[in-house]
Amino acid sequence: MELDFLNSLLSINSVSGFENQAGKLFIDYIVPYVDSTDTDIMGNCYANIVNECNDKKKLKFLLEAHIDEIGFQVIYIDDNGYVYIRRNGGVDVQCIPGSQVIIQTSLGEEIHGIIGKTPIHLISPEERNKNIDLHTLWIDTGLSSDEVKSKISIGDVVAWKPNMIYLSDKRISSKGLDNKVGVYIISQVIKRLSKYKGTPYQVCGVASVQEEVGHRGAIICGYNMNPNIAISIDVDFATDVPNCPKSKFGDISLGKGVVIHKSIDNTILLTFLIEDIAKEENIKYQISARPISVGGTNAIVLQQTQSGIKTISLGIPCRYMHTPVELCDLDDINAAIDLIYHIIIKSDGRMMR
Q1: Is 211 a catalytic residue?
Q2: InterPro entries annotated for this entry (predicted)?
Q3: 63 with 85, same domain?
Q4: Predicted confidence (pLDDT) per residue in 83-107, tens digit
Q5: Binding site for Zn(2+): what residues are annotated?
């Protein structure tokens, strides 16, 4: 399993709306394996395998995963040089005190800092038991007030410091696995398809932007490509942890395979077809029927684009989502690569009914 590209993706910050560097990395990596690449006005990055043929009714597959990650933006700087932030995406505020962060300034500089809070010794017992409000936290850069105000501006983007580690041979933890793991999967499927000459189908891999702030990039790429079938890959909630009732959220575990969603953001016929493919190819998979209200993916908006797009929503089980220590299993990632590859090369007229 080639993991260098995944490691590179995780080492680049790509907070929603500020994905340019990560998008460039995706394009640079994928160029040798595709016929063309492109970037649209939103910042979505496209990689196309054309497979020219005379059949105007041939399938066009869109493989989509968002490349943005949750983070923050600077909203205020006080007279002492402490930096205050707002959320950019659905950050779990309760887990961020003590985090190491990087402020990417409008001047092109990266400034390191830590998220501080009042020590528990100095707050009342009642206050200790309350949920943390983000506006009560601050970033301490270690710089003087004058230095801070000369370097940092309102609106500068703030990301958790890259922190990827392996907890075992197969378990990887990092901020931003949601959803750079999906972008990595697309890259490996396309790389594999580039060596396979048997499919007449067009395939477009998209690293989409701004999913964490409202599926904004996916709306545009759906209109741009108007595929017959869109496969959306994202992380999914692993429920193999304490205090997560399976009777409420389903039974999804790390290491047991890619997740096939059977919910309204999927074209239900396709879920049965891809389940058959997984069985035929001995690919490990799990089934989820969670409601999209628990956490929707870009499949929701792709499905409703133009006159409608058939969608397949696949998930990679992930623990501790929307924290700086998300956790995934490499076996599940491999299963997703295998399944998407075989969906494409084994597709036939059944997909279009």
Answers
A1: yes
A2: Peptidase_M42, Peptidase_M42_aminopept, Peptidase_M42_dom2
A3: no
A4: 999 999 999 999 999 999 999 999 8
A5: 66, 178, 212, 234, 322
